[in-house]
Design brief:
This protein is α/β, with parallel strands linked by helices. Helix content is about 45%, strand content about 15%. The strands form 2 sheets. A 6-stranded mixed beta sheet has the order 1-2-3-4-6-9, sandwiched between helices. It has a 3-stranded mixed beta sheet with strand order 5-7-8. About 45% of the residues are buried.
């Protein structure tokens, strides 16, 4: 288990906390493995009735750790899927309620993972962004289907194609989050909401979640598979290599040839 992901259960609520503040909670392969392991174990653990995903009151996550991403590109092998793909599949299929507490920046997968959560609470300092195109990549986590379905094509295109940050008030208006709170209250409020869920009949919650998501299951699985193929191809392409190198060198990428 990675120390950069804290896994803690109190009562019937399992909490997964991004704990890599010195790197702005940027997510490594080891962290994805820890997240996936915890979710997979929780599926059949009757002691867990709700899950909270949270960060710090000043930072949720800066998204993928690009250095780790460059050194350990996410590819499936004979041994199994890459850690990030395994985590995304665990999120897609998780049958119990997931509550997210977001304060500060939520970059890339830090935003797209929220599309798989049932309740999302954000601090008034929350900043969301989907910079995939800016990195020479494409959307992941089913966001190319889930975001247009949630906010409409035009608004989703603006977020996914321009990759510019947007903030808590707009996220609330879009329906991405459920409520805005002061940053220091977000994690505690998410915990209280998770406890409310944990006190309800677990079978009723599972069936309710299943029914709400049932009509989209087949198409979402297909689009996530397609995203992974396209993402992998683009990751090996020149634009992504230039973008990641430029980021590490702290310069503006040059896409004029791509």
């Amino acid at each position: 288990m990675s120390d950069d992901i804290l896994v803690h259960r109190e009562g019937a609520v399992l909490t997964l906390t991004f704990n890599r503040l010195d790197k702005k909670n940027a997510i490594t392969a080891a962290m994805y493995t820890a997240l996936a392991d915890a979710l997979v174990a929780a599926v059949d653990d009757d002691a867990v009735r709700a899950v909270v995903i949270q960060g710090h009151e000043q930072i949720f996550t800066a998204g993928n750790d690009l250095q780790d991403f460059k050194e350990r590109p996410p590819v499936n092998t004979d041994a199994g899927p890459a850690p990030v793909f395994r985590y995304l599949e665990a999120m897609r299929t998780f049958p119990k309620p997931i509550v997210a507490a977001v304060a500060g920046p939520a970059v890339g997968i830090g935003t797209t993972l929220l599309l798989h959560c049932d309740l999302v609470y954000a601090g008034d300092n929350a900043a969301f962004s989907l910079p995939f195109v800016n990195l020479g990549l494409c959307p992941e986590a089913g966001s190319s289907e889930l975001l247009p379905r949630l906010v409409g094509y035009a608004r989703a295109a603006e977020k996914l194609m321009l990759g510019e940050a947007f903030y808590a008030e707009e996220a609330l208006d879009m329906g991405l989050i459920s409520r805005i709170l002061p940053p220091h209250e977000v994690n505690g409020f998410a915990q209280s909401q998770a406890r409310k869920l944990a006190d309800k009949p677990s079978a009723s919650l599972r069936v309710t979640k299943q029914l709400m998501k049932k009509g989209n299951d087949a198409s979402l699985k297909a689009i996530m598979d397609d995203e992974l193929v396209q993402f992998g191809q683009l990751l090996r392409g020149p634009a992504a290599k230039e973008a990641i190198t430029a980021f590490m060198e702290r310069r503006k990428p040059d896409f004029s040839k791509f």
